[in-house]
Amino acid sequence: xxxxxxxxxxxxxxxxxxxxxxxxxxxxxxxxxxxxxxxxxxxxxxxxxxxxxxxxxxxxxxxxxxxxxxxxxxxxxxxxxxxxxxxxxxxxxxxxxxxxxxxxxxxxxxxxxxxxxxxxxxxxxxxxxxxxxxxxxxxxxxxxxxxxxxxxxxxxxxxxxxxxxxxxxxxxxxxxxxxxxxxxxxxxxxxxxxxxxxxxxxxxxxxxxxxxxxxxxxxxxxxxxxxxxxxxxxxxxxxxxxxxxxxxxxxxxxxxxxxxxxxxxxxxxxxxxxxxxxxxxxxxxxxxxxxxxxxxxxxxxxxxxxxxxxxxxxxxxxxxxxxxxxxxxx
Amino acid sequence: xxxxxxxxxxxxxxxxxxxxxxxxxxxxxxxxxxxxxxxxxxxxxxxxxxxxxxxxxxxxxxxxxxxxxxxxxxxxxxxxxxxxxxxxxxxxxxxxxxxxxxxxxxxxxxxxxxxxxxxxxxxxxxxxxxxxxxxxxxxxxxxxxxxxxxxxxxxxxxxxxxxxxxxxxxxxxxxxxxxxxxxxxxxxxxxxxxxxxxxxxxxxxxxxxxxxxxxxxxxxxxxxxxxxxxxxxxxxxxxxxxxxxxxxxxxxxxxxxxxxxxxxxxxxxxxxxxxxxxxxxxxxxxxxxxxxxxxxxxxxxxxxxxxxxxxxxxxxxxxxxxxxxxxxxx
Lengths: 330, 330
Fold this sequence. Notes:
Two copies of one chain form a homodimer. Chain A is α/β, with parallel strands linked by helices. Chain A has a single domain, classed as UDP-N-acetylmuramoyl-L-alanine:D-glutamate ligase (3-Layer(aba) Sandwich). The first copy, chain A, is built from eleven helices and 14 strands. Chain A has helices at residues 23-28, 41-50, 61-72, 86-97, 145-149, 164-179, 191-207, 216-222, 228-240, 281-294, 299-313, and strands spanning 5-10, 14-20, 36-38, 55-58, 76-79, 101-102, 114-120, 126-131, 151-157, 183-187, 211-215, 246-250, 256-260, 263-267. In chain A, the strands form two sheets. A nine-stranded mixed β-sheet of chain A has the order 6-5-1-9-10-11-12-13-14, sandwiched between helices. In chain A, helix 3 (61-72) crosses helix 10 and helix 7 crosses helix 8. The longest helix of chain A has 17 residues, at 191-207. Chain A starts with a strand and ends in a 17-residue tail after the last helix. The mean pLDDT of chain A is 96. Chains A and B meet through strand 2, strand 4 and helix 4 of A and strand 2, strand 4 and helix 4 of B.
C-alpha cells in the first residue's frame, strides 16, 4: 500500500482565545503559570468575561503541529471533534486552509467546540484554561482506519488521556498503525497532564510509542525527578530497552536534546528577537522534527528544523503561523 | 444633565477574519485593493473557504474607534447589532473588555453576526469583503436616547448608509444629539461607500455633522476631484459656511491635515517600523483625535494623538490593540 500521509494526528480540536495579561491575573484566577487547566463551561465563561481584548486563532496541540507540518509541505490528516458551530467552522477552515485533511464528523448537538483561554504574560509565557466541549465526544468510531494505516507516523497528544472515550480511540489507532507497520509519535503535553496519567503514559511509551516529545518539565515529571540529567538517563534507558526509538526534549531558548539508544545530541537554537507569545512553541518544534523525519533526514537536522519552527511561532500571537513555513526548510 | 459618555458610537458590529494574501488573490477574487466590498452570505462562505490561515478579531469601523477611545481612557458607549451567536459573543466581550458600554439587544433569530474577510497583502494594505448579517437589523428602536443625549459626541460611520433601516436610526440619533446640544462626528468610511451615497453624505455633512473624518481618497471622492488641494479647499469651504466645524483628513505615512474655518494644519506623523497590517489605521486615528477633543485639547494635539494611535495599530494584525493605549497619551 502506498503511504498516503506523512503524518496523521489525533488531538483536541480547539479554538484559542488569547489576551495579554499581567502575572497577577494568573494567580488571581487560581491558574498555574505555564500550565493547562481544564475548566467547565461555566468557569470558562466567567474567566472569559474577565479577560481583556482577545484574538481568536485555531489551536489544539497536535492540530497545531499538523498545521505546521502542512505549511512546511507535508501531507497530513487530522482527527478531532468539533461541533458544527461558528468556532467549529473556524477550526475546520484553518485545517483545510493549510491543506490538512480533516474529515471527522462534527457534533450536530451537544457541547460547543472546545475553546482555550490563553493568558500571555509580559514574559511571553502562556497559561491556559481549556473548556474541552465537543472534544469529549471523540470516540473509536472517529478513527478512520484507512487514514491511520496510510500514515507513516500517527501523532497523539497526552491531553487526550483526560477523556475516557478518547483513550479507546487512541488504543484503536495504535493497533491499526502498528498492524500497518507504521510508527506512533506521542507528546506528554503538560506537566500536570503527566501527573494525572503518569503510570499509563509510562506503559504507553514502553509498549507503543516510537517517537516521544516532551519539554524539560514534562520529562522530569514523568520520571518524578527534579534533575534533568536523571530524567534524560531514564528516557535513554527506555530507548536502550527498545521501549521507544527516539525521545526529543525541548528546552526553550536552549534548543533541544535528542536521545536514541546510544546517542544523545544537544541542538542549540538561535536567539529569537521580539518574542511575543510562546504558545505553540512545543507544537511547532514537533512539526519541524516530524517534517524532517518524513523526509528521511538525520535526527540532528530534524531537531534543527524543529528549533527553527518553534523560533518562528513565538514571534507571533497564537500557535498557527500566519505565514507559510516552507521557507524555513533550508 | 451631566455628560455621562465622552463618545457614543453607532456602527456595524463585525468580527474581522484576517489572513495574509498575495496581491493576485485580490484581483483573482474580483475584489478592489484597499476597498470594502459588500458580499452576501454565500459569497462570503466561498471566499472564506479559499482564504489561508486566519486570525479572528473584533472589528467594525466605529466599534474599533470606540474600543480605542476606551483603551485611551474615555467613557464610551456603542450601539450596533450582533446576533446571539459565538461571533456575537466575541464582539460583545471585546467591547466590554475595554470598558465600553454595549447594551444593544442582540438578534435571537435571523442572520448571523457580521463578518469581514480581510486580506492583508505584502505591502500591509488591507482589502475587505463584508457579510453584513445581523447589522442589517439595526433600527430606530436600537437608538437609546438617554445614551445619545448623555454623550458629548456621537460618532457615526458612513458604512451604515448601505442599510435603509440604519439610516432612520441615524437620523433619530442625530436629532436626539442635537436636541441635547451635543455634537455629531462622522466618517466617510470608504471611497466606494462615498460613491454610493455622495449626495446624501454632502447633505448630511452640510446640515448635521460637526466633525468629519476622511482619508485622502475619500475626501477626493466626496468632491469628485483627483486633486487633494481642490478637495481640501471644498471641505474648508463647508467649514467657512458653518456647515461643519472640523474636517480631519488622514494621509497614511504623511500624517494628517486638520481644517476649520480659516485654519489648515498639517500634522506629520513619525515613521513606523514593522508595519504589519494597516487595518484600523483610520479608526484609531479617529479614536486618538476624539479622545483629545474629549479632554479639550487643541486640534493639533488631537491630530497628533490620532497619528500615534494609527501608528500603533498598524504594527499589529487587526484593528483592536492587544495592549492598552493609554500609554500613548503623553
